[in-house]
Automatic annotation (TrEMBL):
GO terms assigned for molecular function: magnesium ion binding; phosphopentomutase activity
Protein name: Phosphomannomutase
Species in which this protein is naturally found: Streptomyces pseudovenezuelae
InterPro entries registered for this protein in UniProt: A-D-PHexomutase_a/b/a-I, A-D-PHexomutase_a/b/a-I/II/III, A-D-PHexomutase_a/b/a-II, A-D-PHexomutase_a/b/a-III, A-D-PHexomutase_C, A-D-PHexomutase_C_sf, A-D-PHexomutase_CS
Single biological process term from Gene Ontology: purine ribonucleoside salvage
Keywords: Isomerase, Magnesium, Metal-binding, Phosphoprotein
Domain Alpha-D-phosphohexomutase C-terminal per the UniProt entry, residue ranges: 461-524
Pfam families named among the record's database cross-references: PGM_PMM_I (PF02878), PGM_PMM_II (PF02879), PGM_PMM_III (PF02880), PGM_PMM_IV (PF00408)
Domain annotation Alpha-D-phosphohexomutase alpha/beta/alpha: ranges: 46-183, 215-305, 316-423
Family: Belongs to the phosphohexose mutase family.
Cofactor annotation: Mg(2+)
Record carries keyword Metal-binding: yes
Length: 544
C-alpha cells in the first residue's frame, strides 16, 4: 500500500505542469510524509453541482493546475457530446491565489478541444461572468473562485449556456468525462488561440444595472462600502456613479484585492468580526447604511444603525424581505422564489401582493431556473434582482436596489428597520437564526445526520414537531437532497450538510404574531428565547 501511494504520487509529479506544486509534492516525497501524501492521494476532488472547491496544493485531493486542466477537459468533452463542438466558453476569475493560472489553463484546454475561449480582461465579480455568458451567446461559462472560503481555498464554478449554474444530471456527466481522462499528456493545451476580452462586456453589464432602479427614484442614501479584500470595489463604484448615488466611503483596509485576506479570519460578511472595520468606518462617517460584498461580489451584506446608535448586520432573510417589499411596491410582476432554508416571510409578502411564490432546493442553480422568475433570494446573502440580466445571485445590483430603497425611506424620514417593523406587524415577526458547526472530521456531520434520522426529535423548545421529513426521499415539489425538515407549531427547522464548506448547517425560523408596533419588543424577546431554546435542543438531539 505504501509503495502504491509513492508510485501514484510520482506519476502525478511527472505530469504536474506547475513548478510550485511540483516542488511541494517533491518535498513531501523526499520527507517520506506518508500522512500528508495519503491525505493528498486518498481519492480525487469530486466535481458536483458546486463545481470544484477545495484547499490549494499538490495532488488529486487539492485544487491545482492539474486538477483544473482535467476539469476543463471534462467540461469540453461534455459540451462537444451535447452539440456544441465549436461554441464560445467565457471564463472569469477572482483575485485568489492561482485564479488567473486556472483561468488561463481552462482557456488553453477549450482552445485545444476546438472550442472558442474568451477570458474576461482581469479579476471581476462573478455576476459579470454570469451576465457575459448570455450576452456573448456562449455555450458555457467558468468562474474561478472560492467565493467567501478561507484564503487557502480556490474553486471552479461551471455555468451552461442559459447563464445558470449546472444541476443534475450535467454535473455527473461532466464528472464522468473528467474521470475518463487518464493522462494530462492526452489533453491538448496550446499556448495561444483564445481571446482576452476588452471592457465592452463589463460596460454592457454596467449599462444593464441601470434597469434595476426606477427611472426617477431618489438616490440620496449615503453608504460605507467594503469589498472584503475581493474584486467588487471598481465595479460597484462604477455602478453607483452611473446611478447617481453619493460615492460610497470605502473601508480602505479591505478595498483592494488581497488573496491573503489579512484583516479577516474568514472573508465572509456573516462571520464574526468580518464587519468590524466597516462598523468603525460607519461610526466615523455616519452613513445611512453599510454595504459589503463577499470576495467575488455575488453576495451583498447590509448593516443598519439602530435607534441606540449601534450598527447591526441585517440577516439575509431581512434583506430578502426588504428587497421583495420594495419590488412589490414598485409593481413588480412575476414569480418570487427562494430556497427552502430561507424565511417563509417571502411567501407571505408574495401572497398578499397576489404574486406566485416558489421554494427550491438550496442554491441559485435551482432558484435561477424557476419559471417566470422576477426575484429570488436565499438567506446566505444572495439576491437575484434582475434575472433577465444575471441568472444568479448578484451583489452589485442587490446593493443598488437596497440603496434605492434606503433613499426612498430617507425621503420619508424613515429607515430600513422601520420597514422591517411594518412587515412584522403586517405578516407576523419572522425571526431566523442558524446553528452552524464547522468540523475538521467530515464523519461528525454524517454521524449527526444519521442520529437525527434514527431518533428524530418530537419537540424542540417545548414546541411539538408536527411533521418530520427526510428530504433524501424528495417531496411532491422538491427533488431529493441530503436534508431534514421539521415543522413545528409556529416554527421550522432544516438541517443539512453545507455543499461548499465542512459545516453542518441548521436553519431555524420562528413566527410570532404581532398585533401592533407596540407589541414588537415583547415579540422579539419571545422569538429570541424560542430560537435559543431550539438551538440548545437541536444541538443535543444531533449530538453536536
Amino acid at each position: 500500500m505504501h509503495d502504491d501511494l509513492i508510485a501514484r504520487a510520482r506519476t502525478w509529479l511527472a505530469e504536474d505542469p506547475d513548478p510550485d506544486t511540483r516542488d511541494e509534492l517533491a518535498g513531501l516525497l523526499d520527507a517520506g510524509d506518508v500522512t500528508e501524501l495519503t491525505a493528498r492521494f486518498s481519492g480525487t476532488l469530486q466535481f458536483g453541482t458546486a463545481g470544484l472547491r477545495g484547499e490549494l496544493g499538490a495532488g488529486p485531493m487539492r485544487m491545482n493546475r492539474a486538477v483544473v486542466i482535467r476539469a476543463a477537459a471534462g467540461l469540453a468533452a461534455y459540451l462537444k457530446k451535447h452539440g456544441s463542438p465549436d461554441g464560445v466558453v467565457v471564463i472569469g476569475y477572482d483575485a485568489r491565489h492561482k485564479s488567473e493560472d486556472f483561468a488561463r489553463d481552462t482557456a488553453a484546454v477549450m482552445t485545444g478541444a476546438g472550442l472558442k475561449a474568451a477570458v474576461l480582461p482581469r479579476p471581476l465579480p462573478t455576476p459579470v461572468l454570469a451576465y457575459a455568458i448570455r450576452h456573448l451567446g456562449a455555450v458555457a461559462g467558468v468562474e474561478v473562485t472560492a467565493s467567501h472560503n478561507p484564503p487557502r481555498d480556490n474553486g471552479y464554478k461551471v455555468y451552461l449556456g442559459d447563464g445558470s449554474q449546472i444541476v443534475p444530471p450535467a454535473d455527473a456527466e461532466i464528472a464522468a468525462e473528467i474521470q475518463a481522462i487518464t493522462s494530462l499528456n492526452d489533453v491538448p493545451r496550446p499556448d495561444t488561440g483564445w481571446e482576452t476580452l476588452d471592457d465592452s462586456v463589463l460596460d454592457a453589464y454596467l449599462a444593464r444595472t441601470d434597469a434595476v432602479l426606477a427611472e426617477h427614484s431618489p438616490r440620496t442614501a449615503r453608504t460605507v462600502y467594503t469589498a472584503m479584500h475581493g474584486v467588487g470595489k471598481d465595479t460597484l463604484l462604477a455602478a453607483f456613479a452611473r446611478a447617481g448615488f453619493p460615492t460610497p466611503d470605502l473601508v480602505a483596509e479591505q478595498a483592494d484585492p488581497d488573496p491573503d485576506f489579512p484583516t479577516v479570519a474568514f472573508p465572509n460578511p456573516e462571520e464574526p468580526g468580518a464587519m468590524d472595520l466597516a462598523f468603525a468606518k460607519a461610526r466615523e462617517t455616519d452613513p445611512d447604511l453599510i454595504i459589503a460584498n463577499d470576495p467575488d461580489a455575488d453576495r451583498c451584506a447590509v448593516a443598519v444603525k439602530e435607534k441606540d446608535n449601534t450598527w447591526r448586520m441585517l440577516r439575509g432573510d431581512e434583506v430578502g424581505a426588504l428587497l421583495a417589499a420594495h419590488l412589490v411596491n414598485r409593481g413588480a410582476q412575476g414569480t418570487f422564489a427562494e430556497s427552502i432554508v430561507s424565511s417563509s416571510l417571502l411567501g407571505r409578502i408574495a401572497e398578499k401582493a397576489g404574486l406566485p411564490h416558489e421554494e427550491t432546493l438550496t442554491g441559485f442553480k435551482w432558484i435561477a431556473r424557476v419559471e417566470g422568475l422576477r426575484y429570488g433570494y436565499e438567506e446566505a446573502l444572495g439576491y437575484c434582482v434582475d434575472p433577465e440580466g444575471v441568472r444568479d445571485k448578484d451583489g452589485i445590483t442587490a446593493a443598488l436596489l437596497i440603496t434605492e430603497l434606503a433613499s426612498e425611506l430617507k425621503e420619508e424620514n424613515r429607515t430600513l428597520p422601520d420597514l422591517l417593523d411594518d412587515l412584522a406587524v403586517t405578516h407576523g415577526l419572522h425571526a431566523t437564526d442558524q446553528l452552524s458547526v464547522r468540523v475538521e472530521d467530515l464523519s461528525i456531520i454524517a454521524t449527526a445526520m444519521e442520529r437525527l434520522r434514527e431518533h428524530p426529535p418530537t419537540e424542540l423548545a417545548g414546541l411539538p414537531v408536527t411533521e418530520a421529513e427526510d428530504l433524501t426521499r424528495g417531496t411532491d415539489r422538491l427533488p431529493p437532497t441530503d436534508g431534514l425538515r421539521y415543522t413545528l407549531t409556529g416554527a421550522r427547522v432544516i438541517v443539512r450538510p453545507s455543499g461548499t464548506e465542512p459545516k453542518l448547517k441548521c436553519y431555524l425560523e420562528v413566527v410570532v404574531p404581532v398585533a401592533a408596533h407596540a407589541d414588537l419588543p415583547a415579540a422579539r424577546a419571545r422569538a429570541t428565547d424560542l430560537l435559543t431554546a431550539i438551538k440548545r435542543d437541536l444541538s443535543a438531539a444531533a449530538g453536536i
